[in-house]
Amino acid sequence: MSGENFLFSVFAILTCVSALAVVLSQTVVRMAFWLVISLGSTAALFFLANADFVGAAQLLIYVGGTLVLLVFGVMLTASGPYMKIGTSAGETVVAGLLGLLFLFVVFACIGGVEWRKPVTGSADNIATGAVGNTLRPLGLSFLGVRPDADLANGKPPEASGYLLPFEIVSVHLLVVLIGASYLARAKRRAAPVGQ
Amino acid sequence: MAAGLNAYLLVGAVLFVCGVICMATKRNGIGVLMGVELVLNGANVNFVAFSRYTDLGLDGQIFSLFVIVLAAAEAAVALAIALNFYNNHLTIDVDRANKLKG
Amino acid sequence: MNPEFLLSAIIFVPTIGALLLALLFDSKNSEAMRLFAMATTLVTFGLTLMLWGDFQEGTSGIQFEVAKQWIPTWNVYYRLGVDGISLPLVLLTGLVSALAMGASWSITKHVKGYLVLFLMLESGMMGVFLSLDFFLFYVFWEVMLLPMYFLIGVWGGPRKEYAAIKFFLYTLAGSVLMLVAMLMFYFNAPDPGGRFNLIYLADAASKGGLLSPSLQITAFVMLFIGFAIKLPAFPVHTWLPDAHVEAPTPISMILAGVLLKMGGYGIIRIAFPLCPYGAQYWAWTMVAIGVISIIYGAFAALAQTDFKRLVAYSSVSHMGYVLLGLAVWKVNEANGQSIGMDYWQMGLNGAMFQMIAHGISSAGMFFMVGVIYDRVHHRDLNRFGGLMGKMPLYSGLSAGLFFAGLGLPGLCGFIGEVFVVLSTWNFSWVLAIVAASGVILTAGYILWAMQRVYLGAEYRGPHPEDLTPMSMRETSIAVTLLALAIVFGIFPAILFNIMEPSITSMSKAAESGYQQSAAQVTQLQAQR
Amino acid sequence: MVGETLRNLLMIAWLLPLVGFAVEIFGGFWGSRQSRAAAWIAVGCIATGFVCSFSALMIWGNANHWSVMHKAEHGASHESHDGHQGEKGHEEHAPAGHEAPAEKHGSVSSESQYKLTALAAEEANTAHAAGPTVYSGTLYYLARFGSLDLSLDYYIDSLTLVMFTMVTFIATCIHLFAMGYMSEELTEEYVDHHAHLSNGHHVHRPGRFYRFFAFLSLFCFSMLGLVLAGNIFQVFIFWELVGICSFLLIGFYTERKSASNAANKAFIMNRVGDFGFLIGLMVLWTFFGTFRFGETVNDKGEVVQAGLFQLLQRDDTGNVIRDVETGEVSVGAADAAMNPGNARKTIPYFLLVVAGLGVFAGCVGKSAQFPLQTWLPDAMEGPTPVSALVHSATMVAAGVYLVGRFYPMFVQEVLLTIAYVGCITLFMAATIAIVATDIKKVLAYSTISQLGYMMLGLGVFGWGAGLFHLVTHAFFKSLMFLCSGSVIYGCHHEQEMPKMGGLWRKMPITAFTMLVGVIAISGLAIPGLISLSSVFAFSGFFSKDAVVATSLAFVKANPSHFLLFLMPLLTAGITAFYMFRLWFYTFAGKPRDMHVYDHCHESPLIMTVPLLVLSVLAAFCAVGGEQGPLFLLITGDQPSHVSHGVAAVAGASTLTLPGHDAVHAVHAEAGTYALIAAASGTLIAWLLYGTTMVNVAEMKRQLSGLHGFLVNKWHFDELYDALFMKPAHIIGKFCTWIDRTIFDGIIHGSAKVMIAVSKWDRLFDESVVDGFVNLLGSSTFAVGRSLRVVQTGRLRQYVMFIVVGVVALFAILFTTFPG
User: Fold this and answer.
1) Is residue A141 located within the same domain as residue A76?
2) Are C42 and C98 in contact (CB under 8 A)?
């Protein structure tokens, strides 16, 4: 077992187990904890898959950002940190069964499909998803240049990068942030509904 | 377990299914959100795996980046919604949000 | 300015004005909106004057032609152009629109909507007169219909809904027939590229290559009914009095001044050149309808007690001269040669002149009725009187405009009427005599109306205290119209010089088209 | 260039009043109500016009060497100039007025005789008119269509010039008179005693002095344009314009219902005539292709198109040339190149008659001939100067003028009609005048009657006689109207003669000048005063004598039309009777209404001076009779076939129209008859009204039937009202009814049908279509209801469903496509 495989196995199992733990834990704080573990180890998987930038982003945004946000949410909404909102047993069973069924279906799909052959590096040493440092190509592609696609094989540049989606996403984020702050701002209500 | 495409996909599948079950079982709104995060992560794992093991090139990674960003955005909005919900109902139990009942 | 661009500008400046008006202005600030709309119409009128300045008189062809593909699948083009037939009408439209806008100060309800619709209406009218593509013509024809419907239906008098619906249905019925005829041409055009090109179609028809003689007869009837409704000719004229009576004053001015002319324009631009055989086949009927319209409208006007309705019926009578003049085309059926071609041309010219003259005089008459209606809010002829003493300037100017309608020499109405009537004897002496008798009736109803309204010792109706002198704005509108009536009455050659070459070439083309078709008929009969 | 000089002078005379009109109407509107400026402008314009016209007359005379005067001495000979002294002799008789300068010019011309002859000959070539003395040309074009064109032209011959001079002169006098007569309008607060408000008060209004003069100026412009017109279409244009001026002037007192009624009546009746005129125009236009009287000339002086007068050709006997086979009249000048392109080659003879009658119908309307005479008496509603200028001297004479102008186009059937219309008119109007009591109405009927004389004269081929009477009548009738105006002014707007009487003591000048007019119109004369062969008489005698003589010659040639002589002869007596009745009634005898008499006064100088000037002319303008200068001037350019007469066509029932010789032969005889008639009329009038020998009231009662008939003007108004006015209104109402009930009924009916159909359609929709749809809807609803349970609103459940759905989908996928 190579080092890569070993690391992969460790993180894969960690990921899966902690994800399962998220499902199974009863208090929201614990769920948050397990989620951190799960996401963090996913990041590790990314590193293993030669996607170091994505992994970094995962760590920064997810683990560092989103989860903090979630924890804030937990703190703001929970009556107590270990508040439990129980699920009925029947539901849990049905959900578990369904989950297994779903997992089986997905596994069947994965197993049943003949995936395309992986490529091993490119001729002119331009980083692809498979090998090399992907940071620079990623950055270029966000600026509208695709060194891996456009410059490969002597094709003329088609500018098939992601400048526009990048911009859209940026604006989208901005809008979302504004929207979120608007939605989350404290409102005065005369009386809580449904009490 | 060899680190191949299928292995990654299996991890992704597990994450995905866990996320879905999480969404389906948690009555806590924040829990549902966490389920969503898991689902998205599962998808991300798949993307990265495809990027690594097929000739998709960087597209997969780029997509996963977008997914991460959108997930962050979604989390922000969802949390805002949750807070609003909590403000209105003084609880975070999503079963109380049944106004759309037929 | 680039003359080709000029045509589009004339059509769309009002539209742009309407857009700006809709977007930029606060609907409470009516005065600013009115001024802006006024400026828009004036700019449009200025553009039409520029067009006149650039127009080369003495040539018969289309000038400033613009052709851009619009809907390639159906061979529809954005094709514009002017010649001597359309130019005077474009000028008239610009003028009457500006003046009617000047008369629109009396509108106080929903000013913004009114002005926007008004400007759109102007665009539509300009488009009708400038387009040389049948499809485009049809589009503008319909575009103009809707604003008119709303303008009558929202800003009208007590029975406005009835009048608006009546107007709309009548005109729509005509449009539908026109559409059918349009499709007939479309599917019979020899060259698919020119299926909607009016110039090309006319050219083909003059060579006898468009429709067969029997089809021409059918197509002409459909076109003619469509245009006759607009004209309006007896017996499809009854929408006119209602529409006029209910419409607000500026809209009446537009209606009488421009919209009615579209009927005549359609006949001379489309019906005659495209179906010359049909036109000749129905010539006698058309002349008869024209004569009946003259007499019938005059008699009906004599019996009215509503001032505006009287003027409306006078329009029926006056537009009868247009139809009469257009149709006095006599041929020798034995050999297909025209008899007295020059007389037909005189009739055509006279009819065109009558359209312009009527545009000026009837717009003026309606305006004058509107001025007094704004003051005393009734139009009952029997409850007026003595205005000459109370409002001398108003009465003097109205007398001038009514005399123009009466056909007094030196004013524009005379030239049109008399030229048409003079050209009629060549066609049919009976109809000529009947048509000439219209001069007596016209004098009768106009003088009688003037006597009841302007003359007499005192005003007999309500609100005598409101009989204030005309404002500067009203005076300038009336003076402009009267001045034009005088200028055209004394120097008709101004207009004839523009129109004559185009009309001559049109009539020549129609003549040759008729001869070709007649030859086909003879051939068919010989084969049997 | 004489032609151009004449044109320019006459155009100045013609257009100045138009300028005046514009200035007056605008200046007056914004100016002071008390200002006489408008009147002075009007007088200035028209007086300048008179000067121009008169100089034009002189220039014309010089240019052709007064050849018209020689014609008198030497027949139709144009070459001979040695009769010049004789002509001068005539002119020395000319006592006053405009004849004096004529003499001066005449002598100038005699000094440079040879030179001018050459000049005249040269101009005859370059001025390219029909004769050496006719100048025509085009001012500008109205329109051209192919070979047809319509233009404003001028046509200057002796008739034009005489008419110009006459019109401008009379108009000047009347303008001056009106300045005094209308002075009451020079106020901000004019009280109209004839117009009442509904509360019984009189109408108070600002004065309209300026407006009156503006209208007068406009009228002068129109009238002069009519005279100057070089084509029949242009005549029609100005014909209508004088009509509208007449309308405006009759209706000057707009507050009076009677005035506006009269104005409408005048205009509409004229329009009836114009309807005929228009028919005539249509025929001419269609068959001749031109409206011009004279030939059209291009820049090089070549004749390019013949005028109407050249197109209708006559043979040596004066009859029109007809095609032998078809009987149609040939159209065209001798030179084919001159023919208008679109003209037909022939015209049916009856259409030529129709054209003539049509044009004459216009003249009937304008000149108030039977049967369109009723408007003229009503037109007396206008101010008196208007009656004098428009409704006696000029506008109503335009009909006569046009007949004279258009004479070459009239065939003899038309002429006969003209003669009979004139004959009926002159008699009928005279009979009504006998019983009229309104001083202006008497004069109005006398105007109609005299117009009848003119028409008769023209109809019986007395071209010169009719027009001669036109001119003399213009002078004495305008004089009499002005006198009556002076009386009315002096009597504070009292017009009823029974309230007057004995006024000569109060207003001697008016009475004297009126007497001159009365004598002139009555045709009284003193034979043999100056020499045995001549008579001393005022103008009316000569002209009426000429008419009567022509009709006698006509009757002698065509005995079956004897009425054409008897009626005018009888009417000559009636004329003298009613005119003297008027004079005696008004000026002589004792005052009948002391109130009127006491307040009566002579008019101011500005009114009496025109009276005196006109009375001189009324008395002496026709001096010399048919050898006198006026007659010779008028007939200078008479139609070529007139002087020799027209012989009857052998074998056809046509008329013989007398030439000059035939008329001359019966002149003395006719003059005697006419004088006897006039004298007896005068005598009767004197007996009845000048003395107290006969009780007039008694006579009136005994003849009440006839009297009523005459007072009611032969019941023409009632007849027309019943025949035309009422039916027109009924037809109008009927048309409206048709519109409302039939056409709109069809529309409404079809709308109702549509509504019915749509109702049925709605029923169908509701039961069948809606039933189906409702079934569909309700079943959907039921399904939804049953499925409603599923919609718990629980988020988590939904996620479960999604999962179930995905799994189920995959399951189906796998089972369906295994592998």
Assistant:
1) no
2) yes
